[in-house]
What does this fold into?
Amino acid sequence: MSTEAQFHSSRCSKIKRGFALSLLTMLIFVTIVSSTARADAVTRWNEIATTVTTPPAANIPPPYQSRIFAMTHAAIHDALNAIDRRSKPYALSSRPDPGASPEAAVATVAYGRVWPGLSRRM
It folds into this structure.
């Protein structure tokens, strides 16, 4: 093989590797970005639950606080899992309306679990 042919072969190989690396990077980025919306809503409601269940906002014993968190996150799991089925649900096995918003589902079930739990204790 001539030097020129080796150079061309090496260059094509580098271009193919570069393309494959770019494609892989793009796929990873899209995967991360698509899951960020759900993670942000879940994280936000976790912060809200933490804020309203810890002193001085509320005088809730740690075991009861843990119970509120467990019930809230199980409900969030089932709501998101109903929209994008990835695992077996804990309690909810229904299907949402087409085009249901993951953020709205998280907010609805989190609000429904956090606030009633607090109102019974206050």
